[in-house]
Specification:
The complex is a heterodimer.
Chain A: H1 17-23, H2 25-32, H3 59-64
Chain B: E1 9-10, E2 13-14, E3 21-24, H1 50-63, E4 69-73, H2 83-90, E5 101-107, H3 114-122, E6 125-130, H4 150-162, E7 167-173, H5 180-191, E8 195-200, H6 217-230, E9 235-236, H7 237-250, H8 254-259, E10 267-268, E11 274-275, E12 285-286, E13 290-291, H9 302-307, H10 313-328, H11 332-335, H12 340-347, H13 356-377
The chains are: A mainly alpha, B alpha/beta.
Chain lengths: ~70, ~375
């Protein structure tokens, strides 16, 4: 379903993020499965960094570099 | 970057020794004068010497024995040094040891032409372009004569596309009103970029006017998450980051995420000063700490500077700030401690906790994603 923006403020919830994430597990798993892996970001350059490094060098390590 | 349990411990925050990325400042000069820019010396031309590049290359080669390393040529505008000069700075870097050394460049693209594209393809260098969205969103991006630059940026992007050089985009967003995220995401898709990075305008460095966007940013992020999920053809850096955390949270790994050491993101300035983190502090001084540097690569091997970086007082203060975030913030396992430069420029200290950047760029982002998911869940 298209989820259009709204300018109306949404009341803050008292639930911790972890509980809200768990409550939406199915929807979030579906979205997260399409997202890339990105452990750290810095606004001043256009890549993710800080991927966990695989045990042996190879194509995965090369992809992890940027 | 390894989860190195032997990394130095400052309170609860550890700084890993070997960085996965090194930012290089080949010049302080930028040929543009964007009104929101944080850089203090962008009107001056101070070029990095080949000796500085060689000193960094030596350390990077050693680090590549432990993990992949990306050298990011930043600025100023890195292409302003000229093609031949940048090539001379690239020369000392080898392909890497156990892991590869790769190169990337962050550019405004106004100087990109076919010759630059040949260099990008030959090295190879990954490219990220700064452009704020459709033409009307680029009013802040002017040259030193105050003239618009978006046509020159688009000409550079056309050269990249002709040469089949893939590129990412960073957009500084000042308009977070309804529809703005949709327009930005559509624009990124039409450009053909691989990854879109979204920076909400913020008070930082020599740019002190803005408090930037406010509470409405949760709706902006919600809209962006919805656009991306409906047609995920462009990766969005901020969404990738948030969903990586969500994956770890759903897998029960949030505590382990929180335990990981702080990942260094060092900057080497044009004259060889080394900052282990807080790259956007380069060129600034504080009354308590003096210039933000941990030493100079021309006097001390960069690997030594990295290994003892956590002992430098301002770095230790920044690591104490991460520990303070961990103690105080419910979002720590997601954010992992905020950005040192934002803390300093907003509060005057590096050991403070929540900033406007945390609220608009992290907390409201997660809030937008959760609202989107909750609407789907109903």
């Amino acid at each position: 379903m298209p989820n259009n923006n709204t300018s109306e403020p949404v009341p803050p919830t008292a639930l911790p993020s972890a509980e809200r994430i768990e409550a939406c597990r199915t929807a979030l798993e579906a979205a997260a499965s399409q997202a890339g892996e990105c452990h750290e970001t810095a606004g001043i350059f256009g890549w993710a960094y800080g991927y966990p490094v695989p045990a042996q060098p190879g194509p995965e390590a090369e992809r992890a570099a940027v | 970057m390894r989860d190195d349990e032997s990394a130095p411990r400052i309170g609860q925050a550890k700084l890993a020794e070997t960085p996965p990325v090194v930012l290089m400042q080949p010049t302080t000069l930028c040929n543009l004068d964007c009104s929101y820019c944080y850089l203090p010396e962008r009107g001056m031309s101070r070029r990095m010497s080949p000796e500085v590049a060689a000193a960094v290359a030596d350390g990077v080669g050693k680090w590549s024995e432990r993990n992949p390393v990306t050298v990011v040529w930043h600025g100023g505008e890195p292409l302003a040094v000229g093609l031949g000069y940048l090539r001379s700075l690239l020369e000392p870097f080898g392909p890497g040891e156990q892991y590869p050394v790769t190169h990337a460049v962050q550019t405004n693209a106004t100087l990109v032409d076919d010759a630059w594209c040949e260099l990008f393809a030959a090295v190879p260098m990954r490219v990220a372009v700064s452009i704020d969205g459709p033409a009307e969103q680029n009013a802040a991006r002017v040259d030193w004569a105050g003239q618009p630059t978006v046509d020159r940026v688009m000409k550079g992007i056309d050269a990249l596309r002709r040469a089949c050089v893939p590129f990412n985009v960073i957009a500084v967003v000042t308009d977070t009103s309804p529809g703005a995220a949709t327009d930005l995401y559509r624009f990124a898709g039409e450009l053909g970029c691989e990854v879109l990075g979204v920076n909400l305008a913020e008070k930082k460095g020599v740019y002190t006017r803005g408090g930037g966007p406010g509470e409405e940013t949760a709706s902006f992020w919600q809209e962006l998450a919805a656009c991306w999920q409906n047609a995920p053809h462009v990766r969005v850096r901020e969404l990738d980051h948030a969903y990586t955390y969500i994956r770890e949270e759903l897998a029960g790994g949030a505590d382990r995420r929180a335990e990981r050491p702080v990942v260094p993101l060092p900057m080497v300035t044009w004259d060889g000063e080394y900052l282990p983190l807080g790259a956007d502090l380069a060129g600034f001084s504080s009354r308590r700490h003096g210039p933000f540097t941990a030493g100079n690569v021309l006097r001390t091997p960069i690997a030594t500077l990295a290994a003892r970086g956590h002992t430098v007082p301002w770095v230790a203060e920044a690591l104490a700030g991460v520990a303070a975030c961990r103690a105080a913030c419910a979002y720590f396992s997601y954010c992992r401690g905020g950005q040192p430069a934002n803390k300093y420029f907003e509060t005057g200290r590096l050991d403070s906790t929540e900033t406007a950047f945390c609220r608009t760029g992290r907390i409201n982002l997660l809030e937008g994603i959760l609202r989107h998911a909750e609407q789907q869940h109903v």
